[in-house]
Amino acid sequence: xxxxxxxxxxxxxxxxxxxxxxxxxxxxxxxxxxxxxxxxxxxxxxxxxxxxxxxxxxxxxxxxxxxxxxxxxxxxxxxxxxxxxxxxxxxxxxxxxxxxxxxxxxxxxxxxxxxxxxxxxxxxxxxxxxxxxxxxxxxxxxx
Length: 143
Prior knowledge:
By secondary structure, this protein is an all-beta fold. It folds into two domains: 16-71, no CATH class; 77-142, no CATH class. The chain contains one helix and nine strands, in the order αβββββββββ. The chain has one helix at 5-8; strands at 26-27, 35-39, 58-62, 73-74, 87-95, 101-108, 115-121, 127-135, 141-142. The strands form four sheets. Strands 7-6-9 form a three-stranded antiparallel beta sheet, with no helix packed on it. A two-stranded antiparallel sheet has the order 1-4. Strand 6 (101-108) and strand 7 (115-121) form a beta hairpin. The radius of gyration is 16 Å and the shape is globular. The two termini are 22 Å apart. The mean pLDDT is 80.
């Protein structure tokens, strides 16, 4: 439901806001700069607050050293979905003038490739936006 009333009654869903960790997400490579956990008070440029306007709240950002490269962040492994158990991931994102393309992909455990399920490029500039992806998979997967 748009007003989230269905989530309030089911305690099996997992919420993550990056306040204490990376939410079980793993970077593809530990040897290259990539995603960093920071807040608006870090002084590294916009955004200067999270999507709620909180300057001390944490979010993930690409390292300033990533101007012409890509960085991948993987979730933990999710179990298969069915009609009763659907996976929805809601995330907030910030697109700045320097941004390239932000993509969300799905990799099923039986496949070697990542299927693009959502993406946005730099047309929405310097503002927080939100998106929800719904995932249906009959096998274990990562996002």
